[in-house]
């Protein structure tokens, strides 16, 4: 018997393979997770990132996950490898497009990806929040929010990338309860994206509770997860810095897997890993070059929570993104 599907864990993902990857200097000022590599040339870094995405996509496919892999051949979108920030998909056929904090990231929105989703999956509507950028109101998708699709809760850490007005609007449209909190790293700097400190699965949650600044809010959030019956794996600051929270549970024909980076897996203790493997099969992906940009595996995978069409004519997923193509979507 095939394993029961989980509303929390998508069975398909969108990935972007960059041809000219580099850590983005335009986003470094509020992303303390970014790092520089002075040992390699820009060309070597770009090639390594290309190879890491290629291998990760192959591993996911081998594990039974549907991967829609798109190319980015431009030099204008250094963070395009992280598509989960500019769009998300939701059960019932809904797609959301998000307002991005950095102007350099607004060029990542791609009409070809949305058209692919409409062609291969049942899409009823596309709600576009990107116009909020004109009012300096930002909400960077499932980086800014970590969604509990089962309990209908949107967890969000305040930052330049997460505006409460936009969050409230999203939650009203998509029927989520917003839970907003302050989170900081060990140096007291606000954590730029919620999904670097929290991963919610069907039966397990990994979260850096010590990063939540307010003790009462911290206890409340821990209690919420306890009330859902999930096993809670509490992450240290060092584990957060190793991207242990930047993971995503995915469904496959062989059961649920936890996609995370090799670095993140190494950061977990044997006791934490023992808790995880009772519910998911860890799938480590080696992406050290991608992690220079301040994100990891969760950021690389835009989950597809849409019902597939029963019959689909041929549609080319793997179209190159040329500089001449439109960089934004008007929907």
Structural class: alpha/beta
Specify the CATH homologous superfamily.
Answer: L-arginine/glycine Amidinotransferase, Chain A
Radius of gyration: 18 Å
Q: Mean of the pLDDT scores?
A: 90
Number of helices: 10
**SSE string, helix = H, strand = E?**
EHEEEHHEHEEHEEEHEHEEHHEHE
The CATH class label is Alpha Beta
Name the CATH architecture. Answer: 5-stranded Propeller
Low-confidence runs of at least 5 consecutive residues = 319-331
Distance between the termini: 41 Å
Number of strands: 15
Biggest sheet overview? 3 strands, mixed
CATH-assigned fold name: L-arginine/glycine Amidinotransferase, Chain A
Overall helicity: 25-40%
Portion in strands: 15-25%
Pfam families: DDAH_eukar
Organism: Chelatococcus asaccharovorans
Protein name: Amidinotransferase
Written overview of the protein:
This is Amidinotransferase. It holds the Pfam family DDAH_eukar. It comes from Chelatococcus asaccharovorans. The chain has 331 residues and is α/β, with parallel strands linked by helices. The chain is 26% helix and 20% strand. It is built from ten helices and 15 strands. The protein has helices at 42-62, 103-106, 111-120, 141-144, 164-174, 215-228, 237-241, 262-267, 270-277, 297-300; strands spanning 12-18, 66-72, 87-90, 94-97, 125-128, 145-148, 153-157, 177-181, 198-200, 204-207, 231-234, 248-250, 257-261, 281-285, 302-304. Strand 7, helix 5 and strand 8 form a beta-alpha-beta unit. Residues 319-331 have low confidence and may be disordered.
């Amino acid at each position: 018997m095939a394993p029961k599907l989980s509303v929390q864990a998508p069975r398909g993902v969108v990935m972007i393979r960059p041809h000219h990857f580099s850590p983005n200097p335009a986003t470094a000022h509020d992303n303390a997770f970014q790092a520089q590599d002075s040992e390699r040339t820009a060309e070597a870094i770009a090639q390594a990132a290309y190879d890491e995405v290629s291998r990760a996509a192959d591993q996911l496919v081998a594990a039974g996950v549907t991967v829609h892999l798109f190319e980015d051949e431009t030099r204008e979108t250094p963070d395009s490898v992280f598509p989960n920030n500019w769009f998300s998909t939701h059960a019932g056929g809904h797609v959301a497009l998000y307002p991005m904090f950095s102007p350099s990231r607004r060029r990542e929105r791609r009409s070809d990806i949305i058209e692919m989703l409409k062609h291969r999956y049942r899409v009823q509507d596309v709600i576009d929040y990107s116009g909020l950028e004109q009012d300096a109101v930002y909400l960077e998708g499932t980086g800014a929010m970590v969604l509990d699709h089962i309990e209908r809760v949107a967890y969000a850490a305040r930052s330049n990338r997460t505006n409460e007005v936009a969050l409230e609007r999203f939650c009203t449209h998509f029927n989520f309860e917003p839970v907003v909190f302050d989170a900081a790293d060990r140096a007291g700097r606000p954590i730029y994206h919620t999904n670097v400190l929290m991963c919610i699965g069907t039966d397990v949650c990994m979260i850096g509770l010590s990063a939540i600044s307010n003790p009462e809010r911290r206890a409340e959030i821990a209690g919420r997860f306890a009330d859902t019956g999930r096993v809670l794996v509490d992450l240290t600051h060092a584990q957060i810095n190793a991207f242990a929270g930047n993971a995503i549970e995915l469904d496959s024909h062989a059961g649920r897997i936890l996609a995370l980076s090799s670095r993140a897996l190494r950061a977990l203790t044997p006791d934490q890993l023992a808790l995880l493997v009772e519910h998911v099969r860890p799938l480590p992906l080696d992406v050290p070059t991608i992690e220079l940009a301040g994100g990891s595996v969760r950021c690389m995978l835009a989950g597809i929570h849409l019902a597939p069409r029963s019959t689909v004519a041929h549609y080319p997923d793997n179209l190159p993104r040329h500089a001449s193509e439109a960089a934004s979507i008007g929907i």
